[in-house]
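Structure Section — protein described below
Tokens — whole-number codes for backbone shape
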Amino acid sequence: MPRELITMACTECKSRNYTSTRNKKAQGSEKLELRKFCSKCGKHVAHKETK
């Protein structure tokens, strides 16, 4: 299976709100960071990949 499941956590309140997939064989191994809506914070904030 070439893709792995990752969990996205809010950078402000640290709640884990989203899941996504990423390529296991990607050249860059930096953590994925996306701006998503956090229902706990009530606004759009950056969500970073966690394990």
Q: What stands out?
A: The chain has a mean pLDDT of 90. The first strand starts at residue 3 and ends at 10. The beta strands are 3-10, 16-23, 33-38, 43-50. DSSP finds no helices and four strands in the chain.
